[in-house]
Amino acid sequence: MIDIACVCVGNKYDPALYVDQLYKGLCKQLNEDFNLTVLTDTPNNPFYNTIPCRTVQVPDWKGLYGPRAAWWFKMYLYSPNAGFTGTVLYFDLDVILLKNINKFLTHKPGGFVLCHDFNRKWIPSYNVSNSSVMRWFAPHYFRIWEEFNKARDEFIAKFHGDQDFMTHYFKDRDDKSWWPHDWAMSWKWEIYRGGLIQSGTGLNDDGTWPATAEKYHQPEQPWVIPHDCSVVVFHGEPKPWDTELGKQNLL
Fold first, then answer.
1. Burial label, 164 (beta-carbon count in 10 A; 0-12, 13-18, 19+)
2. By the number of CB atoms within 10 A of the CB, which of 59, 95, 160, 218 ranks highest?
């Protein structure tokens, strides 16, 4: 039985929508029995009694709040106290599982696999990882937690978020790899209207989404999804279920 994990902390993501959609997406797109574990600061939320899942209380780290808190609480995934004993497949909550995801279980077994940061679109040599979709064998990577926890406050002050720490951790190690780029793709940079032509946020100057049509490769198309793309990642804005693609794939 495979362990699937997610983190739901704070009030940015309502579990009744985001955890529920992840669970339903897993039931549809994963041909393996799985256990869903939610790392959360509200394990007693009544919603968690409505789906088969295990909740894990995240630690009380004083002074950690806001969006960065949700990022840094991902580090608790690697703690022995999170209760994982085998292979773990992790998803951020702001993703849509569009197609079968079995391949994420078998790709490069034994090592730690995660996304290449989506700046790869413009800088192929960009040596930064993205933690939206990850897989690892838990006992082999308790050492990530040990490394992080021995200087937690210093790392949180030094790095913007968990994926910057993970980039640092694996810098001189050879057991990390990235998913094939087409497997998990950025909605606003790579999928929407065929992707942005030039580097940018995909937002207008006033912060609204989307950018004007001429900034995209295929402005006449609502989106372009490569054949091998199974996961669409909605980092930042917009949120998945506010888009037409999300509304069409709401389960």
1. middle
2. 95
The sign one gets for the Cα dihedral 187, 206, 92, 19 is: negative
CA-CA distances (angstroms) from residue 163 to 9, 70, 115, 170, 179? 17, 12, 10, 10, 15
The predicted-structure confidence for 77-135, as pLDDT tens digits, reads as follows: 999 999 999 999 999 999 999 999 999 999 999 899 999 999 998 888 899 999 999 99
Instruction: Determine, yes or no, domain membership for 68.
Output: yes
Q: What is the dihedral of CA 12, 40, 189, 26, to 10 degrees?
A: -120
Note the pTM of the prediction, 2 decimals.
0.95
- End-to-end distance of the chain based on CA atoms, in angstroms? 23
Q: Parallel, antiparallel, or unpaired: how do β-strands 112-116 and 95-97 relate?
A: unpaired
In a domain? residue 147: yes
What gap in Å lies between CA 145 and CA 166, rounded to an integer? Answer: 11
Q: What is the rounded CA–CA span in Å between residue 117 and residue 186?
A: 9
Structural domain tally of the chain?
Answer: 1
Residue 175 lies in a domain: yes
Range of the domain at 54: 2-180
Query: In angstroms, rounded to a whole number, what is the distance separating the alpha carbons of residues 53 and 36?
Result: 5
The domain that contains 111 carries what CATH number?
A: 3.90.550.10
Token pair 């497997």 in the structure block, residue: 183
SS3 label, residue 240: helix
Distance CA 217, CA 196 (A): 6
**Could you write out the DSSP letters of every residue in 75-128?**
GGGGSGGG---SEEEEE-SSEEE-S--THHHHSSTTSEEEEEPGGGGT-TT---
